[in-house]
Every structure is written in C-alpha cells, then in structure tokens.
Amino acid sequence: MIVEIEIIPAGRLPRLDDRPVEKRIGLIILATDHTTEVDFQRMVAGDRIGVYVSRIHYANPVTPENLLKMQPSLTEGAALILPDEALDAIVYSCTSASVAIGDRNIEAAIHTAKPGVPVVTPTAAAVTALKALGARRISVLTPYTIETSRPMADYFGELGFAIDRFTCLGLTDDRQMARIAPDEIVAFARQALAPQSDALFISCTAVRAAEVADRIEAEIGKPVVTSNLATAWACLRLCGDDRARSELGQLMTKPYRRLRSW
Question: How far out from the chain centre does Cα 227 lie?
Fold first, then answer.
C-alpha cells in the first residue's frame, strides 16, 4: 500500500547571501594536470576563498607547437567557470604555455569570457615574486627539453634577469613531470642553484615543487619561487589574504604588488 506523504510549502523563500563563498578564484588547467588543484586546495582554498576549476584539452608531448594549440580553448575554459558570475582572479596554470602563447594573449582570451578579472599566469606571477624577493640574478630549473626551455630563458632574460644557470631535465610528458619524487626535486634544486644567484625559480605547474619549497630554501640558503607557489601567492594577495605563512616559503611572507610583464 502506498501512503501519500503530505509536502508542506515553507511559506517564504530563504534569504540569499551575495555569494556562497566570499572570494572566488578560477583555475584553467590542462586535462592532464595532476598537481595544480592539489596545491591550490592546500595553499589557497578555505572558508573565505573558493577555488573553481575548468580543464581544457591538452595532448603530450610538451613542445612549443603543442603548447600553442591550447590558445583557442582559453576563452571557453574561462566561460565555463561559474558562468555569468564575477571572479576575483583567474589563473591559466601552465608555465611553458604562458611563454609560448604570451601573457598578453592569455589575458585577452580570458577577458573575452570574463571581462576585467585579474588574470594570473605562472610566468607573470613568477616575475612579480622574484622582484618581491629582490632577486636580480637567478638560476632556473625546468623539467622540459632544451627546445621548450629556450623560450623561457629568453622570457626571463628579456625582462632584465641575469640567468646564472639554467638546468632542464629533458622530460616531454607532463604526467611524468608530476611524478618526479619530492626528494628528487630537492636534489635537483641543490644542483641547479648557482652560488651567485639571488633566488631559484622552479618551473612547471605539474612539478610538485611548491610542497618542498621550504625544504629547498633550508638547504640552499636562498629564496625559492615555483610556478604554483607564485600563482597561489598572487591569488591570496588579490583576495586580501596578507598573512605571512613562512612554512610555505619566503615568498609567502612578502606583500604583493601586481606587475605586468608586458
């Protein structure tokens, strides 16, 4: 026997907050990305800040040609993050593609879908971070091949940094880059730093370098900037979170002054 359950209307509509979460960060990440979401949940997301993700198509290997193929997907990727709602910042989370496509072009593509939102790229965030740390001479460690690393060396050189040492690991698959063991990242970072450098930059949003940045700094005695550490720092500061979190590395103790690399 079926008993009909009486359903009672509440009598009024509920009061709505302006936003479910006070601040909103959008992430555009590669379909193959294992690391960015994890890093942002650990470093950025919280009671005040929500992180919302859109994935776009990407096919390995990591080459300048394949990286450029993502540019047409950026507008759609941005549009799919909370459609018709404002964001406090949006990140395109690929360092080598940010060099290949260009910071300016990435911002223009994202603004087509999300006008006026601050756009953060790992490259522009890294430049801002290095300047916040007072670094003029840098060493760089990438997981890429020489072919993919060369444009990055040119990018930092053209922005006025002296590159004392540039080391690349020769990988071509970003899924392998995500699997580099943390202890190996620390070991390669030690080797990558030139003694005269002011700081070390570790490139690639796939590499789990942000989680060991403090360990590396303790071993090399110099500040460390990683792709995800730089974008997380930029996003926190854009959301008004100015806490000094030294356990995440020296960068997270610094104020943020947004700079353009173009």
Answer: 5
Please, what's the b/e burial string for 88-101 (b: 16 or more CB within 10 A of its CB; e: otherwise)?
bbbbbbbbbbbbbb
DSSP 210: G
pLDDT value of residue 261: 52
pTM of this structure: 0.94
CA 139 – CA 126 distance, rounded (Å): 13
- Is the confidence at residue 184, as pLDDT, over 70? yes
Distance of CA 225 to the CA centre of its chain: 11
By the 8 A CB rule, do 143 and 204 touch?
A: yes
Mean of pLDDT over the chain: 96
How many Å apart are CA 262 and CA 244, to the nearest integer? Answer: 28
Cα separation, 126 vs 128, in Å, equals: 5
